[in-house]
Backbone:
C-alpha cells in the first residue's frame, strides 16, 4: 500500500533552518510528484511547493520563494523539504503529499504523510 | 491565481441529514479540475473526490460532487457520525489552491 512516512517534530529558533524528510513506498516514485502543504494550528491548507519525482523539477509558492528548497533522492524514494530563515509564523504541521502530476505541478493529492510539526520559537 | 471561497463556514446538521457544501472559484476551473478533501481533528486530510465528481478509492457513495465552471458542490447524503469534519476544496487547473474550509458539526 502507498505510504508516506515523515520525520518527527522539530523545534527551531527564529533564523534557523529545518529539513524534513518524507519516505515513500508502495508505488513508483518517479511516476508521481511530491507536494508540500502546511497547516498552521486552527488554519487552512497552504501549498508551499512541488517537486517532480520524474526529473526533480520544482515550483515554489511566492510566499516562501527563496527560503524553501525541495529535493529528492530516487535511490531511497525520499523527498526533502528545507526551509531557511525560519520565523515564528512558519510554525505549522508540514505534510508531504503524493501529487498525480509529475510534469506540470497541477495535480490533486491522493496520499498524505502523517505530518511533521515544526515549532519556531525563541 | 484562482481564489476558492467555500460556504458556509460552518454547517450544523444532525446525523442522517444531507449536507451541501459550496466552493466558488474566482475564475473558471478548466476541465473541472476540482478536488475535495476531508480532515478529521488531529489527522491529515483525505482525498474524497477529484475531477469534480470522481470518488477516490474507498470513499462511500454517499459522497458526491457536482458543478462546473466557477461553482462546485460537495453533497453528503445521510450524514454518518464520522462525516463530521472539515472539508476543503482544491483546484488544480492552474497552480493549485485550496478553499478556506467548511466545518460540518453536529447540531
Residues:
Amino acid at each position: 500500500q502507498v505510504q508516506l512516512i515523515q520525520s518527527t517534530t522539530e523545534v527551531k529558533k527564529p533564523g534557523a533552518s529545518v529539513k524534513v524528510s518524507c519516505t515513500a513506498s508502495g508505488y513508483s516514485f518517479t511516476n508521481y510528484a511530491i507536494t508540500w502543504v502546511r497547516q498552521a494550528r486552527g488554519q487552512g491548507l497552504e501549498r508551499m511547493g512541488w517537486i517532480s519525482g520524474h526529473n526533480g523539477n520544482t515550483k515554489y509558492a511566492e510566499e516562501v520563494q527563496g527560503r524553501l528548497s525541495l529535493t529528492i533522492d530516487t535511490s531511497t524514494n525520499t523527498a526533502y523539504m528545507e526551509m531557511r530563515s525560519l520565523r515564528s509564523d512558519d510554525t505549522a504541521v508540514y505534510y508531504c503529499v503524493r501529487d498525480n502530476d509529475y510534469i506540470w505541478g497541477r495535480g490533486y493529492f491522493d496520499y498524505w504523510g502523517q505530518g511533521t510539526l515544526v515549532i519556531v520559537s525563541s | 491565481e484562482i481564489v476558492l471561497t467555500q460556504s458556509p463556514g460552518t454547517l450544523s446538521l444532525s446525523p442522517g441529514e444531507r449536507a451541501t457544501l459550496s466552493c466558488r472559484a474566482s475564475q473558471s476551473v478548466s476541465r473541472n479540475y476540482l478536488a475535495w478533501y476531508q480532515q478529521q481533528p488531529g489527522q491529515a486530510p483525505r482525498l474524497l473526490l477529484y475531477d469534480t465528481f470522481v470518488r477516490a478509492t474507498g470513499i462511500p457513495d454517499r459522497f458526491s460532487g457536482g458543478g462546473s465552471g466557477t461553482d462546485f458542490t460537495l453533497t453528503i447524503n445521510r450524514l454518518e457520525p464520522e462525516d463530521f469534519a472539515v472539508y476543503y476544496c482544491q483546484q488544480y487547473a492552474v497552480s493549485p489552491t485550496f478553499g478556506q474550509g467548511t466545518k460540518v458539526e453536529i447540531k
Notes: The interface with chain A takes residues 33, 35, 37, 44-47, 50, 56, 88, 90, 92-101 of chain B (CB under 8 Å).
